[in-house]
Amino acid sequence: MAEGKPAGEGARAAKEAERLLQRLEWTVIRRLEGVLQGDYRTLFRGFGMDFADLHEYQAQDDVRYIDWNVTARMQVPYVREFQEDREIAAWFLADLSGSLDFGSQSVRKRMLAAELVAVLSRLLTRRGNRVGAVLYRGTGLAAESAIPARAGRMQVLYMLDRMMRPPATKGGARTHDTDLGELLARAQHAIKRRSVIFLISDFVSRPGWERPLGLLARKHEIVAVRLCDPLERELPDLGMVVMQDAETGEQLFVDTHDKGFRKRFAKVAAEREQALREALASAGIDCLELSTHEPIDGALLRFSRMRKQRSQLSAGASLAGATARVFAG
Questions:
Q1: Distance between CA 20 and CA 122 in Å, rounded?
Q2: Residue 224 exposed, middle or buried by CB count within 10 Å (0-12, 13-18, 19+)
Q3: How far is the CA of 96 from the CAs of 25, 162, 167, 204, in angstroms?
Q4: Most buried residue, 118, 286, 292, 329, by most Cβ within 10 Å?
Q5: Tens digit of pLDDT for each residue in 115-125?
Q6: What is the helix, strand, coil percentage profile of the chain, to 5?
Q7: Which residues have C-beta within 8 Å of that of residue 313, sequence separation ≥ 6?
Q8: What angle do CA 247, 250, 256 make, to 5 degrees?
Q9: What's the rounded Cα separation, in Å, for the pair 27 and 115?
Q10: Other Cβ atoms within 10 Å of 237 Cβ, number
Q11: Rounded Cα gap, residues 220 and 225, in angstroms
Q12: Is 72 or 48 the better-scoring residue by pLDDT?
């Protein structure tokens, strides 16, 4: 498929996108390809399988592909071999609302989102896969049209260019909060075929997004990417400080020297995090957590290992139980 071209407008954002991608290609992407090698699919699984052959079960096989009819005849577990469709269509649902401007050190959550899209998109497009995006900047703002899924490096640059353009605001102030339900609804309309979806957000949102996320997860494989900063979980003793809502602009003086205030802040943050984990778990969605204080490649490698280990443990447990039932019968 032909590669997309970056838009003529936003020359500064286009240059920033090119510099960002070049930096990541020489550092993070090269390292990940060397470490992951064939295991890069632990980050995103393909779709479309054609039956090819049968072979006796081995430890690394997926228990879901056991052929129980053949197993019963042979008295030894056999699994079906499939020829997997090599092409993956991946979509990035990027929450670019005001709260992503926060970062307690040199890296903001907005840049973290752009880095993730650059890394994963390039890993995919280097193998001929297609990537697309749905961008969201807040409620009340004009909806950006979805970026159709295409292959190639220029497609990656085009998505980064669109992500890195400054949001349109009136009077220099942002007065729009976040409703992830809107982003998920746009994705439901834009993504027609089964795809891998990365939902990128800090999940600072109006309530009610859990149901549309569950509906989207019925059709697609979704990975939630949570962007976070350590100061959002626990406040240090900084004395009197001004805290500002990044989305509404509302300001408030707080005394961080007050231990009770810091304790209440940490409690609310922990409750919000627990609610998020429960919502994602109920929808069967894995969560990749990216912190502004951690290199992105380390987080991706840890996530890949987690998915691989969990898959192996699940396959082993399922095989033992299922085999026992078949042979007992």
A1: 12
A2: buried
A3: 23, 11, 9, 11
A4: 118
A5: 999 999 999 99
A6: 45, 20, 35
A7: none
A8: 105
A9: 12
A10: 10
A11: 15
A12: 72
Using alpha carbons only, what angle is made at residue 301 by residues 298 and 305, rounded to the nearest 5 degrees? 140
Residue tagged 């993730």 (tokens) = 116
Q: Which amino acid, 230?
A: P
**Cα torsion through 28, 32, 35, 38, rounded to 10:** -160
Q: Which residue in the block uniquely carries the two structure tokens 């001929």?
A: 128
pLDDT digits (tens, 9 = 90+) for 224-263: 999 999 988 888 777 777 676 666 667 777 777 888 888 9
Place of tokens 């992105």: 296
Residue 65: exposure state from Cβ atoms within 10 A (0-12, 13-18, ≥19): middle
Q: Is 241 left (phi over 0), alpha (psi -120 to 50) or beta?
A: beta
SS3 149: strand
Total length of the chain: 329
Q: Which two tokens stand for residue 62?
A: 């997926």
Provide the token pair at 327.
Answer: 């042979």
Model confidence over 57-106: pLDDT tens digits? 887 777 767 888 888 888 888 887 755 555 789 999 999 988 888 888 88
- Angle of the 210-219 helix axis to the 180-190 helix axis, nearest 10: 20
Query: By the 8 A CB rule, do 320 and 305 touch?
Result: no
Taken in order of first residue, the domains within the chain and their CATH numbers are: 11-37+86-294 (3.40.50.410)
